[in-house]
């Protein structure tokens, strides 16, 4: 375990030069005053026509969601890419884990939808009736089994729409007031591991949790792209995720916090995910500043990997930064734009050096492009982004 | 007190309380003093702008940290940061206000050397003392992902900072 106080003390001493500054506060106040002045006329520019248009769009969106809604739509409220692939994020089979518990009734954990295109995998699941929170006061013998908690335990964490939120708030208030209070939280939760039927452990690169308006726990798992070689070419993925049950008891006696937890594995939820998206090879050749370059890309709606090969080292034909610029302040910008103007965002980057070939991963836009136009150029600090129409773009088309 | 006055009053209090923690957090996230200055200014401007929609479900600290992290992400995306893993260099830091020792420098350097995702969780969890749930909320990731990243970050740090770990 990291010693938290040690970290704080040492880092604060090392960064003590980063101190409060009245000049900085004046700059902040000035920026806010400028924004305040700009905001005044903005309010008057919203017309009745625009309000009508907004309402109409909202109504259309409501109809669309009602017609075809899965958790990709739910998470699409935060990330439009999920909305774009939501209609395709289907499952061949799904088998929930059912958990019977006196406090929960029958909790259900099930994989709701997933999108798999060989390059990328996104999976969404929900847990229904997965949490119950009740007030709790331990007996003497129960208290003897509990552990005195640290500061983390004192403050209850909760999210919007989480079941039992009133009791969690009451706990926080009691701790603040120094009055005795306790609660018991029974919950069903899932393992971090998503395992294929032949044992490949797909660990999520990121996971976004949320409670929906019905109080169901929902999570979107996004896996690292490109996927491991052993699963990339499959036509379907059979996956399972372990389901666990936990009961945590908290008691605050007015001065100290006590807690105890009981956990057990209670089953697995499984699903068969068809290859419901496709990735395509795109190729293109052209010149950049008179140097021949060839680009190959594997592109799917959610991800892309692009390799660029040139006849000369990139630092010989891309513009060099002004003399005196630190080489770390100069980099190679690669922008890929589809026929509709949507940008594929690079996930990594490279410095301007003597390499002739490099590969970069990109985040997808939610749709397969017809064409991709790729611009490669050098950038450095304080340089404005160039007008792309003045640059050599290389157009990539699907390889037939 | 009308809403405008209340918002301005809040801003003054927030700057007094959070200016320095935000500045140091942004520095740890961006590894650049000038950008950290920009990020702190943007954070307060955004917080002031959205003050009316702050529902106080999260603590003020968590709310501000969330804005700061998003602001730093935006800066990283719009700058050359997205493309290169810049070498850690603390030379541009202002002169320290209090004396520091070599281990202070080593610890800070070790954190700054972590990959972005791991640096974020270590900074928020251990430097800012946010709970795991708060870190998850700030970064829009699950608690399990926070634990996973903390575990990974601790393993990174442990090799160079063995003496500062305890086994409890």
Layout of helices and strands:
The complex is a heterodimer of chains A (400) and B (168).
Chain A: H1 4-14, H2 22-44, H3 48-67, H4 71-76, H5 80-85, E1 93-95, E2 97-101, E3 105-116, E4 121-128, E5 131-135, H6 140-144, E6 147-148, H7 151-154, H8 165-177, E7 181-196, E8 201-202, E9 204-211, E10 217-223, H9 229-232, E11 236-252, E12 257-274, E13 280-288, E14 291-299, E15 303-310, H10 314-317, E16 330-338, E17 343-346, E18 350-351, E19 357-363, E20 371-380, E21 393-398
Antiparallel strand pairs in A: 1-12, 2-3, 3-4, 4-10, 5-7, 6-12, 7-8, 7-11, 9-10, 11-12, 13-14, 13-21, 14-15, 15-19, 16-17, 16-18, 16-20, 17-19, 20-21
Chain B: H1 3-30, H2 33-49, H3 60-78, H4 102-112, H5 116-127, H6 132-139, H7 143-160
Helix pairs in contact in B: 1-2, 1-3, 2-3, 3-6, 5-7, 6-7
Structural notes for this entry:
Chain A has helices at 4-14, 22-44, 48-67, 71-76, 80-85, 140-144, 151-154, 165-177, 229-232, 314-317; strands at residues 93-95, 97-101, 105-116, 121-128, 131-135, 147-148, 181-196, 201-202, 204-211, 217-223, 236-252, 257-274, 280-288, 291-299, 303-310, 330-338, 343-346, 350-351, 357-363, 371-380, 393-398. By secondary structure, chain A is an alpha+beta fold. Chain A folds into three domains: 21-67, no CATH class; 70-274, no CATH class; 280-398, Sandwich (Immunoglobulin-like). The N and C termini of chain A lie far apart (54 Å). Mean pLDDT of chain A is 85; it is low at 41-68. Chain B is mainly α and 168 residues long. The chains are: A alpha+beta (400), B mainly alpha (168). Chains A and B meet through helix 1, helix 2, strand 9, strand 16 and strand 18 of A and helix 1, helix 2, helix 4, helix 5 and helix 6 of B.
